[in-house]
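May I ask you for just one protein sequence along with its backbone structure tokens in two labelled lines?

_____
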Amino acid sequence: MAFDIKFDYRFDTIGFFTDERKTIIEQAGDIWSSYIQDEFTSTPAGEVLRFPINGVEQEVTFDEPIDDLIIFISSVELDDDRPTLGEGTYYGDYILGSDREARIEGDNFEPWLGIVQFNASALDNLYFDPTPETDDDIPADKQDFLGLSLHEIGHVLGIGITPAFNRQVNNGEFTGTQSVSLNGGQPIPLDSDLNHIEDGYTLDENSDALLDKSFTFGERNLPTDLDLAILSDIGYEIFAYDAVPVHRFFQYERGFHFYTANETERENVFELSLDGTLQYDYESVAYRVLSSDKDSLTGQNIEGALPVYRFFNRDTGSHLYTISEVEKDSILRTLSNYSFDGIGYYAFESEPQDIDTVPLYRMLNTRSGSHLFTTSEHEFNTVRDTLDYFNVEGNEGVTYYVIDNL
């Protein structure tokens, strides 16, 4: 069962959270949930939750159990001299010696209630992305609200503010075992507030840690391996995988779709289509896939993850993706018009237990010789029922399993 983060907006008294903004913060919750394998004890129905928010002590009771974590969201008008975009924290009262005390004070941090407040005065600085599955459309003078939401939820989950975290801080550095191992045996430098990773510190030159102190304009920060390692060090069971988008283009001269998980290839096709060298229209991120079959923290194999091979059909100009070793070998032996491109990405032949996936449908266009890949059951059914020159392939159309969009 996936880790569940629920959001409650009843304390958003100034109406900051439109449906669009709720969708973005809930996607941030889904991103964190996708990495966390824990199953916390549910908060029972009828329990009175007491906590301060917007400067007032509140009491809330739910008719149903809360599994696993509830986060109350509010927006406040902060003074102009306070540059804070948001503030996230956990909260929970407990009886000494109880299981609840161990969940807060112990080495395995397990929050059941969180509070995130956003600064409505900073509205002009934020970008509320209507297409959060892409990150190349954030204006250079704006800060990404999805990244901000991920950052504050990271604090609710305990990064930088819990006893389990603080016990592993020495001389201004975080010394958790998993984090130090990931960093080549070196501790992680912290900001002077000891609640954040040192600003700009990263293990990957292309991505700052999500839980450093500042937000870069015009960019999106997602959880990095370092952020996930810190969660592991404060007691979470983490499944660290790298999910990358597969971009879908339409070749309008020949009438087929082109798919790529390679960002450089995507950029090249997009730019060459803009100047007329190529004839492709960019459609969207179609789905997400694994860039590796290894857990990025432990280095262990991800159970069930298999290579997906890519072939180029020189006759049609289209590409074929297959997870089948039998089909790969057959194409290499018998179809001389196909060039082998190698491993395109990794996916699952059957539904895995530890990661949420969706079926990917595959159909052959018998007129063009190209293949259609889609996770949309509606698109699959429409093409199957209305275009008789498309043949369903795989197990009732399912070729393998991929990760859905954000």
In short: The mean pLDDT is 92. The longest helix spans residues 19-35.
